[in-house]
Amino acid sequence: MDAVIKKTMPASIYMEKPVTDRPSQQEVESAVRTLLRWTGDNPDREGLIDTPKRVAKAFREMFNGYDMCPAEELGRTFEEVAGYDDLVVVRDIQFHSHCEHHMVPIIGKAHVGYLPDGKVVGLSKIARVVDIFAHRLQTQEAMTAQIANVIQDVLNPRGVAVLIEAEHMCMAMRGIRKQGSTTLTSTFTGTFSDNAEEQIRFMTMVRGGLVR
């Protein structure tokens, strides 16, 4: 298939928190040393000497979603689809994110579906959009809406459906300490929001059932 390059909306629209005024590497490492001291440990002991540097490197990787624009990932579409205009679902997209309230992990999977309107996008791009939003400080509710909205706005399909199921370490590791509990959130746009049968069809495909 030949790819069609479309001009997308400005990146700033989909950058929820633009990258500005980042501290220096030295400032980050100093902050980590302070946290290590606050835990009651000694940042100068052998096992922790290189920890500030490692933490800074890990944070750069885990929060690289702030440096990326999901709209740009969706800019390359395909129009030679042999007339296909039915539901496309990418399910079980594994992700890890971090809760914006406690900065502890959110671990889960996203299921994304859309009804094309003349063009489709590469399947890996859908997963990439999930990762970009996941690699920012998040709430699951906001992330669910962000994924659906950017796909709807950039691809302009007839509808988008997003279901996220995740375990929140802020519930498992602290506070109420309920391990194994799962939170589900969903968002529907376009045809999905107006048509309960389409919602059911999406959910059935996500759960591995056969749609007749």
Overall description:
With 212 residues, the protein is an alpha+beta fold. It has 8 helices and 8 strands, in the order E-H-H-H-E-E-E-E-H-E-H-E-H-E-H-H. A hairpin with a 5-residue loop joins strand 3 and strand 4. The longest helix is centred in the last third of the chain and has 16 residues. The two termini are 28 Å apart.
* Poorly predicted sequence stretches spanning 5 or more consecutive residues: 1-9
Level of helix content? 25-40%
Largest sheet: 5 strands, mixed
Structural class, judged by helices and strands? alpha+beta
Order of helices and strands: EHHHEEEEHEHEHEHH
End-to-end separation in angstroms reads: 28 Å
Q: Compute the number of helices.
A: 8
- Percent strand: 15-25%
The gyration radius over C-alpha positions equals 20 Å
Q: Report strand order across the widest sheet.
A: 6-3-4-7-8
Shape: elongated
Q: Compute the average pLDDT.
A: 89
**Total count of strands:** 8
Strand and helix map with partners:
Elements: E1 3-5, H1 25-39, H2 51-62, H3 70-73, E2 76-78, E3 88-99, E4 105-115, E5 120-121, H4 123-134, E6 137-138, H5 140-155, E7 159-168, H6 169-172, E8 183-190, H7 191-194, H8 196-206
Parallel strand pairs: 3-6
Antiparallel strand pairs: 1-2, 2-5, 3-4, 4-7, 7-8
Helix pairs in contact: 1-2, 4-5
EC number: 3.5.4.16
InterPro entries: GTP-CH-I_C/QueF, GTP-CH-I_N, GTP_CycHdrlase_I, GTP_CycHdrlase_I_CS, GTP_CycHdrlase_I_dom
Domain GTP cyclohydrolase I: 29-206
Give a brief outline of the structure.
The protein is an alpha+beta fold. It has helices at 25-39, 51-62, 70-73, 123-134, 140-155, 169-172, 191-194, 196-206, and strands at 3-5, 76-78, 88-99, 105-115, 120-121, 137-138, 159-168, 183-190.
